[in-house]
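Much of what follows relies on a compact textual record of a protein's fold. A record is reproduced here so that you can trace the correspondence yourselves:

. . .
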Amino acid sequence: MSRKLVRPRQGRMLAGVCAGLAQRFGMSAGMIRLLFLLSLLLPGTQVIVYLVLWILMPNEDTHTRY
């Protein structure tokens, strides 16, 4: 299990945010994706949070280089 919050190259669907969160917290990527989709039914800023994480989370290979 990776302890760093990065977007992996393998297992991405859109940007890798859900896959990165799943690796970080030891859950399946499918479960994180399902929770995100269910959260879209509630009012809030879920899409904005996703976009911010997409911008702030480094790619896996960029992060491991340094």
User: Anything to note?
Assistant: The mean pLDDT is 88. The first helix runs from residue 17 to 25. Residues 40 and 46 are 7 Å apart (CA to CA). The chain is about 55% helix and 0% strand.
